[in-house]
Amino acid sequence: MNRFYIPTTGVEDWRRLLADPEKHWRTGFSARSLAYAWESAKGFPPEIQDLFTRSDPPFHDIELLLTIPEHKVLMPPYGGHPSQNDIFALAKDSDDNLIALTVEGKVSESFDKNLSEWNAEGSPGKQKRLAFIKETLGLAGEIPNTIR
User: Fold this and answer.
1) Which of 47, 68, 75, 92 could form a disulfide with 88 if both were Cys (CB 3.0 to 4.6 A apart)?
2) Angle at 145 between CA 141 and CA 148, to 5 degrees
């Protein structure tokens, strides 16, 4: 996979980036909904901008610098399929501090299984990924099984 990012000319450019364009590009599902929301906003969609404004402390004057749809992130064990984020965004605040964020959009889909269900299908690869996430986030101890 090359690391070249090409600007979009509209929502249809987002479709080709999906893992399964036929299955995931449907009305009422997150991929298509996010494409329309972000393309029409010409910056952050109002719902995202509102989250920044209501945060504690609030972020004001956030400027969107870059949006990468269907951004892939390699996670241990390397060599498997990368994790695919709906959107990676890079922004800056009024003091020129950079802000990096990922967005996982949901319309009528669930946010995935809770940890106990995910672990029931456990594999050595999943356990390595979970350990990597815990270490990266600085989490000590067990994560509650109700977390998704």
Assistant:
1) 68
2) 110
